[in-house]
């Protein structure tokens, strides 16, 4: 009986050690991400975990870039932030919320005009469209700001500015359009590629300021080494190729050659 008890104790100790070791190989990263990049980020976390022994348990919070910035200012304990612009990460850096030399461009965003009901969506359709259109709120979401700039460039802002439906982020814009609340929405090109209904068209990037999306590590990060390793993974050739396939522009290709 004594020998059995000792053997059982040894087994339990080994099991405990294995569990502890497994726990040590997985670290939680709290990530704030702009709504347009939420799904690509989830897939990139999965790819990272498939390739590395040290796994990321990603706790992902999705919001408009402007909201993420305000959350950081009010003490949100993010480890990493994936913004839809470079302005907010620069502010986080300048205001002392982020680590130096941790700000990098991870994607170049693109806009798309999309309809869940129109089988042949085209920009020309906006010229005579009598109804409302949906965009993200320009003061909160860089994609909303770019959408307004595109409408201005097309000479359509005066026509639509009183009947534009604005959402807090680009995901809400997508939902407003998908449910038929409006016929047309200006969403991210990535959302268009992921959509299983309707039709859409890529919007010329010459019509708006570049959507340069940057990520940054915050001072509140609990595992800086892991966060930096994940950043390196995001910037790797394979991840960048995947991001472009998900609807983002190739940063190495001039705008005029991209269209």
From TrEMBL:
Superkingdom per UniProt: Bacteria
Any single GO BP term: molybdate ion transport
GO molecular function terms attached to this record: metal ion binding; molybdate ion binding
InterPro entries: AvModA-like_subst-bd (IPR044084), ModA (IPR005950), ModA/WtpA (IPR050682)
Binding site for molybdate: 65, 170
Signal peptide coordinates: 1-22
One Pfam family here: SBP_bac_11
UniProt keyword terms in alphabetical order: Metal-binding, Molybdenum, Signal
Family matches, as CDD domains: PBP2_AvModA (cd13539)
Family as reported in the entry's similarity comment: Belongs to the bacterial solute-binding protein ModA family.
NCBIfam families recorded: modA (TIGR01256)
Name by which UniProt lists this protein: Molybdate ABC transporter substrate-binding protein
Source organism per UniProt: Thalassotalea litorea
């Amino acid at each position: 009986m004594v020998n059995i008890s000792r053997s059982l104790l040894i087994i339990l100790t080994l099991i405990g050690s294995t569990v502890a070791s497994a726990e040590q190989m997985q670290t939680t990263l709290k990530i704030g991400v702009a709504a347009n990049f939420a799904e690509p980020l989830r897939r990139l976390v999965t790819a990272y975990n498939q390739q590395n022994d040290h796994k990321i348990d990603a706790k992902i919070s999705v919001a408009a870039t402007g909201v993420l910035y305000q959350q950081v200012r009010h003490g949100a304990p993010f480890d990493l932030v994936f913004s839809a612009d470079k302005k907010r990460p620069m502010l986080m850096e300048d205001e002392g919320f982020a680590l130096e030399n941790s700000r990098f461009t991870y994607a170049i965003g693109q806009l798309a005009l999309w309809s869940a009901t129109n089988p042949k969506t085209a920009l020309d359709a906006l010229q005579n469209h009598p109804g409302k259109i949906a965009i993200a709120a320009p003061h909160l979401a860089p994609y909303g700001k770019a959408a307004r700039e595109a409408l201005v460039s097309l000479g359509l802002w005066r026509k639509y500015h009183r009947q534009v439906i604005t959402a807090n982020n680009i995901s809400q814009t997508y939902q407003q359009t998908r449910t038929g609340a409006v016929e047309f929405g200006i969403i991210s090109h990535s959302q268009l590629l992921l959509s299983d209904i309707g039709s859409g068209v890529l919007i010329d990037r010459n019509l708006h300021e570049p959507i340069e999306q940057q990520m940054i590590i915050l001072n509140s990060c609990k595992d800086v080494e892991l966060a930096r390793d994940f950043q390196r993974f995001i910037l790797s050739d394979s991840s960048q190729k995947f991001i472009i396939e998900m609807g983002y522009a190739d940063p190495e290709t001039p705008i005029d050659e991209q269209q």
